[in-house]
Amino acid sequence: MQEIPLYYFLTVSTLMFFIGVAGFIIRRNLITILMSIELILNSVNINFVAINRYLFPDQLQGHFFSLFIVAIAAAEASVAIALIINIYRKFNSIEVTEVNEMKY
After folding, report:
1. Phi and psi dihedrals of 29, rounded to 5?
2. What is the pLDDT of residue 102?
3. What gap in Å lies between CA 33 and CA 96, rounded to an integer?
């Protein structure tokens, strides 16, 4: 069985990263911005695992970094969703352009 070349993984990861960056910059919905950030983090995870597999196949540093990023992404998503729910309760919208004040 033949291994998948490294540039396949890097190509997919690069596409995911730039789609995430474009979604973060272009979109105005807070949920879509959160999904774009998650897409960026997942592209970084693909890079860690793929490069670790090809440079150091017997070691697991890339996998541990990926698990650490997944844990941070889960915490970030829970805090972000809590903020989005509070913003929706106050402004009845989750569009970035309509949220212009952050007073209590």
Report:
1. -90, 135
2. 65
3. 10
Largest CA distance in the chain: 60
Distance from C-alpha of 13 to C-alpha of 97, rounded to nearest angstrom: 30
CA of residue 55 relative to chain centroid, distance: 24
Contact 31, 94 (CB under 8 A): yes
Per the structure, the complete domain to which residue 67 belongs is given by: 29-98
User: Which tens digit of pLDDT belongs to each residue from 39-84?
Assistant: 999 999 999 999 999 999 889 998 999 999 999 999 999 999 999 9
Indicate whether 3 belongs to any domain: no
Would you state the torsion angle of the CA atoms of residues 33, 39, 43, 46, taken in this order, to the nearest 10 degrees?
A: 150
**Residue among 76, 7, 77, 78 nearest 46 (CA):** 7
